[in-house]
User: Fold CAP domain-containing protein from Chitinophaga caseinilytica.
Amino acid sequence: MFNQRYCKILFLAAAVITGSSTMACSKPVTGSGSTSERSVRNESDMDEDILFFVNKFRRSKGLKPLELNGVLSKEARGHSKDMASGRTGFGHEGFESRIDDISKSIGTVRAAAENVAYGNLSAEAVVDGWIKSPGHRKNMLGDFNLIGIGTAKGKGNIVFFTQIFVNKPAAQAKK
Assistant:
């Protein structure tokens, strides 16, 4: 049996779809995780590695891959930095503001969701933790076409992870 208190610390998911919001929690994941199929080369490659594992999971379910978007990644990175520095608590504080900022840059979005996590985790391990959590899994399998990924190290080299998912009409998605 796992401790619900730790669940709230390690993994949180939020979704805003046409005005509604949901939150979910998963069992904590610890350790570095296996990176047998793709190893994390260095910290700057963490975002690309997370994208690789998310899209591998989506493909296994017959879904199109998500496209990494710079605007979304900037917002995700900023949120991870804020959590890592303690400026923001771990969670989804400011999620609606991040989505508003994204909309100002790329236009109105149909739907958006966010996953966060922290720990001493590889890209594969954090994605595996999200896959095992119903709320995170729902976000990763959602009707989205863009993703932003951002990581930041906090005290003790603990990595904070943020994923932002957006459904944007294809004609406008590349802005």
